[in-house]
Every structure is written in C-alpha cells, then in structure tokens.
Design a protein that fits this description.
CATH topology of the largest domain: Aminopeptidase
Structural class: alpha+beta
Number of strands: 13
Distance between the termini: 46 Å
Radius of gyration: 23 Å
Helix content: 40-55%
Length: 397
C-alpha cells in the first residue's frame, strides 16, 4: 500500500522557476504542512531575496496537487583551481558568508501526515536527477530523516554535528510545574540570587519590540555586546558580517508585526542585561540569538540565565508549546531543557575514484593538522593549555 502511494507521487526538478509561482505554491503548501520556522516563507523568501540568484526547485505532486517543495543552490568546487564537481545545497547557498544566518531543522516542505513517503520520493528524484560526480549537502537537519539516501548507494560524510535542546512546556503544564520547580535546586538558587542582586539596581523589566524600528534599535544595542563576546573567537559574531545584518533587518521588517519575530530588551533599572532575538512559529518559540552584558564580573550575576528564565516563564504563561534552544552545546541549554536530539550537516555522493582521491587528500590534511597540534602541545608555555585554546577557538554563538 505504501509503495503504491509513493508511486503516485511524481517529482520534477525545475531550473530558475518563476519566483511569484514559487511564493504562491510555497505559501499554499505551508498552510497544509507542519514546518519549523526555517521552512516558513518568511525565512525562505527572505533568504531568496537576499542571497540567491540562480536556483532549482524540486516539486512533488500527487493527484495534480503540490505535496512537496525544496530549493537547491548549486556551487562548483575546485581541485587545484580546476572545477571538478558541483555541490547542491538544500536551502543554503554554500557560501559561508551567506550561510552564517544558519538554517536549522532543514528539510523539504511537505504535506502534513505523509512526510515520510513524500521525502522518499523527493530524495529519489534528487539523487537520480543530479550528475553522478556531484554532491548533495543537507543540513542542519535531523540526519535520521535522510538515511534513505545511503540506501540508494550514496556515501555520507558528516561535515558538522551538534546536539539540540528544547524545553517542552506542555510537559510542565501536565505536571503542574513552574519553571523554577522544574529546575535543579542549584540552578533555582543561582537565578533567584541573581535576580535579587539585579533588583538592587532597579526594577527588572522585559521590553518587547513593537515595531521594526524599535527592533532595529535593540539590535544596535546588541551589536557591541555580541561583538565583545565573539570577535576573538574562531567563529565570528554575525554582527561583523554585513550580509547577516541586512538579512535580519529585512526579516524583522517582514515578521515583527505578525509576531513571527520577537526582540526583547531586558534591563535592571537602566542597566541592560541582554537583547534576546527569538522566532515564534506554530506556537513554538525558537531561541536564535542573544547579546549578553557581562560587565559585572561577580559570579552572583547571571544575566543569561535570568534572561532565559524570564522569557521561558513568559512563554509558559502564554500557552506556548515549547521553548527551543536549537543546535549548539551549552551548559544553560542543559539546565533548561527536558528534550534533546542531534543535528548535522551531511554531504552525500556516489562512490567514485574522484571521491576516493578526495578522501585521501582530506585524510592527509587531517594528519598534518594533528601533527601540528601535537607539536604545539609539546611547546606550550604558561597560560591557557592547548586544549583550552582549541575549545575557545571553536566556540559558536
């Protein structure tokens, strides 16, 4: 029965289709889907307008109705300055500067209830529709959803992976728990102590941007705080990337009044604790970015914990289903979460002599890098250990 249903799904890849058709088809399907925020037209349409020139669309149809859509951007790759294969990116460009906006929970947009069948049909179309030397890059996604690609004979290489975290607020409601009751005794103590300390500076307030202009003003406050935290790291602050900033300014213009984009300024008296930038979609809150004021060095001040506590408590009171911290490991995410998973970016391609040669070069490069690390470890002087240096240089916002 399932095979007959899948056989009734026809898929086709179109090169540079009309954007007005795509917007109409995407918005229509979105009403029949259960996508994450990152597959909403608000995110996808803004991404297209900011970064994408040429692209392809994979469409799945059943009984003349669109039941699946995905957007592919092809980038050439080079070996010794010679182009030797292309890479097809799902809802990304392959340009690190543009992809710093970082899509998560990446997938095809699909009709609700038949996602597994539609995804299999679309994966088959994608695998057989690209040239054999070319690669397919998908992520950041739940990799289990795309395991079928390997059954079609393609080899998977994990480019990046991390854990993702969320707090299921419906679970708290079922157990009649407050946020503080859910937390460990130590976390509860730290938050309450910190709030008492901040209250000495004045009333703790949570201001939500009511307009695009107000939200942009808040981002201007966030910029120096975020740059101060991340500019020395291996992965730089997005505020150092003009394209990142332009994308989010446009996203705010399009999403602030509908409530899909939320920007908060949290203060104690006149002192800024943080600027928090979240998305709200389908009764789920997605924590995207925070700029924290770390000017008070005492460990009794916990601006990040306090800020998340205030927003999570607000979400619980408003009936929100979950507060999603998304990808990236961090202690505060462990503190507030009751569910977690794994996200990854994976590259899939057919086995070939070219792929074997690429693997040899990659292994050789890794061996050289490890040898350099070994030498650095041996000559390390006073100060941070090499392991600590590596940890700091690979931190992500």
């Amino acid at each position: 029965m399932k095979k007959r249903q899948r056989d009734s799904i026809q898929c086709e890849i179109y090169y540079n289709p009309d954007k007005s058709w795509l917007k109409q088809a995407w918005c229509d399907l979105e009403q029949r889907s259960k996508p994450s925020f990152f597959l909403s037209w608000l995110w996808i349409g803004t991404w297209l307008d900011c970064f994408v020139g040429e692209f392809s669309v994979i469409e799945a149809r059943q009984n003349s109705k669109t039941v699946g859509l995905g957007i592919l951007v092809k980038q050439p790759t080079h070996l010794f300055f010679i182009p030797f294969k292309g890479k097809y990116y799902l809802h990304r460009t392959g340009n690190p500067v543009h992809d710093q906006i970082w899509i998560e929970y990446n997938d095809f947009l699909m009709d609700a209830g038949e996602e597994d069948l539609i995804r299999v049909a679309m994966v088959e179309c994608l695998v057989y529709g690209v040239n054999k030397p070319d690669a397919i890059v998908i992520g950041a996604s739940d990799e289990k959803k795309f395991g079928y690609i390997e059954h079609l004979g393609l080899k998977k290489r994990t480019v990046w992976e991390t854990k993702n975290y969320a707090l299921n607020l419906d679970d708290l409601r079922e157990k009649n728990q407050s946020v503080l009751q859910f937390l460990s005794r130590n976390s509860r103590y730290q938050i309450l102590r910190s709030m008492r300390k901040y209250s000495d500076l004045g009333e703790i307030t949570l201001e939500k941007a009511s307009s695009a202009e107000k939200a942009k003003e808040m981002l201007k406050i966030a910029k120096p705080l975020h740059l101060a935290r991340w500019s020395a790291e291996h992965v730089k602050s997005g505020f150092s990337n003009e394209d990142f900033v332009a994308f989010h300014e446009l996203l705010i213009e399009r999403g602030i009044e509908t409530g899909a984009v939320e920007v908060y300024h949290i203060k104690a008296g006149t002192e800024t604790l943080s600027i928090m930038y979240n998305f709200k979609h389908d009764n789920h809150v997605y924590f995207y970015l925070c700029a924290i004021n770390y000017q008070r060095t005492s460990s009794q001040y916990k601006p990040g914990l306090v800020s998340h506590y205030l927003l999570i408590n607000k979400a619980l009171e408003e009936g929100v289903a979950s507060y999603d911290f998304m990808g990236g490991t961090a202690r505060y995410k462990e503190t507030f979460s009751n569910t977690k998973g794994k996200l990854s970016v994976n590259q899939y391609e057919h086995s070939s002599s070219l792929l074997m040669m690429e693997d040899v070069f990659r292994s050789a490069k890794l061996w050289v890098m490890n040898k350099k690390k070994s030498v650095l470890r041996g000559v390390s002087q006073a100060g941070d250990s090499y392991g600590e240096w590596v940890r700091k240089s690979t931190s992500r916002s």
